[in-house]
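#dry-run=false #mode=assembly
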Amino acid sequence: MNRISLLTDFGLDDNFVGVMKAVILKINPRAQIVDLCHQVKPHDIFSAAFLLGSAAQYFPRGTVHLAVVDPGVGSKRKAIVVQTKNNFFVGPDNGVLSLALRREKILKIIEIRNPKYFLKPVSHTFHGRDIFAPVSAHLSRRAAIENFGRRLNSYKKIVLPNIKVNTRTLTGEIIYQDGFGNLISNIDKKVFRNFVKKDKFKIYIKNRVIDRVSESYSQVCPLQPLAIFDSFDFLEIAVNSGSAAKLLKTKKGATIKIVRKTAG
Amino acid sequence: MNRISLLTDFGLDDNFVGVMKAVILKINPRAQIVDLCHQVKPHDIFSAAFLLGSAAQYFPRGTVHLAVVDPGVGSKRKAIVVQTKNNFFVGPDNGVLSLALRREKILKIIEIRNPKYFLKPVSHTFHGRDIFAPVSAHLSRRAAIENFGRRLNSYKKIVLPNIKVNTRTLTGEIIYQDGFGNLISNIDKKVFRNFVKKDKFKIYIKNRVIDRVSESYSQVCPLQPLAIFDSFDFLEIAVNSGSAAKLLKTKKGATIKIVRKTAG
Amino acid sequence: MNRISLLTDFGLDDNFVGVMKAVILKINPRAQIVDLCHQVKPHDIFSAAFLLGSAAQYFPRGTVHLAVVDPGVGSKRKAIVVQTKNNFFVGPDNGVLSLALRREKILKIIEIRNPKYFLKPVSHTFHGRDIFAPVSAHLSRRAAIENFGRRLNSYKKIVLPNIKVNTRTLTGEIIYQDGFGNLISNIDKKVFRNFVKKDKFKIYIKNRVIDRVSESYSQVCPLQPLAIFDSFDFLEIAVNSGSAAKLLKTKKGATIKIVRKTAG
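#status=ok
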């Protein structure tokens, strides 16, 4: 316990993240806070869910994962805590927790309603400070999850865009662009291998064709595009020593197709 | 003790912040350093003062607040430590501490002069590393404040721009723009309520008129402007799911007027 | 021990740095991680080496310095740990550690090869997470350096660009531009003083001439350029309350000349 991961879209130009940490440390002076990311594009719930979903498994057991990307702050959207077999997840019930929760065994979902744990007066614009930070801090001190509110049966899920498969073509989508300009698709290694098997294949993205999956960026010449399984096992389009987003002039939402030589 | 908040305009592109932390930890290995913000616009003392002033109250008692926005580094500006009833404040005496100090009961002001506590040789360009970090680290280990130098009777104050009030109009100013493009004015909730009372009113900013104060961003349609009390109780002009600064093409320094229906 | 400094070119827009910290804390829950910088320009080994080289001396003894700027990840470049009299250095063997190592007494160089210490499966694109973070975490728990692999006799060095000296002229180069737009040259205080001695001199950069070294930015008028020894004792071209890079429209790689009045 005591460990809290922190993911927000607050950026680092203001004092919002620092104030949340102050609130946490006032309640649990032993809290060990790890910044997961604060530069999620404002209100981009999907990217935040993706970043938390791919990162949570690397944290020690018992971590409280706090994600505040909350365009509905002050509206009627719920605030939730989810206890899983290994961890706790805290945030608005808008899907931001849902990709991480797919990998966890869920034990309890609680709607946060007990003002006893809030910083008062509760503002209408900064629940990160007034609700989520104090609840996470109390959780990290082993407060029982039932104390925070009433039991729920479900939470809001967002899903990765669907992959379409027909006899010879698998069609996916770029779902995330990282800071190096790498383009991450929704096609994971297992899906890819099941589709391609030992057949030859071509990967089409924008006006480019790539005919193999590389094992490292340096297997192609500098400034050439390549396909590779990224460190979280998604198929990624990258450029050796460059930016795929720039070279291909493409971005999140773009279509990526795998065509295999023979019908499966 | 042991807790130090850190606010600078050093940005995160260099090693300046990391080096300050190294110096602190060399003196006090138990120091718990919380980044308040490092992306203050270079030399923008007012914004730094605003960020520290609105954040300091959320930290645990006994925090050492270190603020290094120091365009006069190496000149004759003083360096000070201020002990208040609850906390310590360290920085150049250029006003950067003053908005936070307005909320505190001041006990002692000391001009930092004792080279015993400095990292030597003291550079002319990086007192954050050579003077402020070591002094803060020693303070966080409970060094007596008198050790650092001689007693002063006052410190440099910066003030929020004045609010002008006449019978029907209150005129304020945008004093801060946050990373979401929200425009924060110098009109706080108390001043606003005393002026408006139960009367109807209109808020004028740029070429827009807003006739109520919302309770949450989502009370107006997406991309519409609204007025709201921000999380630190200042009147803020915002845009639901957007940037007020962009939509209104306005920024820090802009005039904001409240006109009430009947003369007060 | 327990202290780890972290330098990468991963930026702060993704979860890479957070994931590395998670991996470290899973192995050593007491690790105290200090961010040195994460916004090194992607693949800019020289700048990273410069930032680590100028910062490492300020950390407490026994720090594990981890630097991951690794354009060759997944290729055959080596991964190394270097034990010096005072510290440990971990990273790819591409020169990123070498400017820091110049200041240290080297005891042992080990090529990291023992998969026992890796996070498995080891990806081809993120050795920061799978190799360097776990090795650093184990080191910070006092694992013996010999455990990680086999002894090497040398490591890859990068060098500062040469300074050319003739009877009256010393020619150097801008090697780093910091976030304030200050231009740092490869001419250090000792070299400068040995060359100039007590003679008069002129400093030429772009179309500007500067005839003295200032002691503080404020010794010249606002927006005027000046020369000053930076906080790490390199000769720096700066602008009082402004950006030298912008004013002089120049950058890394630019030539800087010192001409003294009389032949030496």
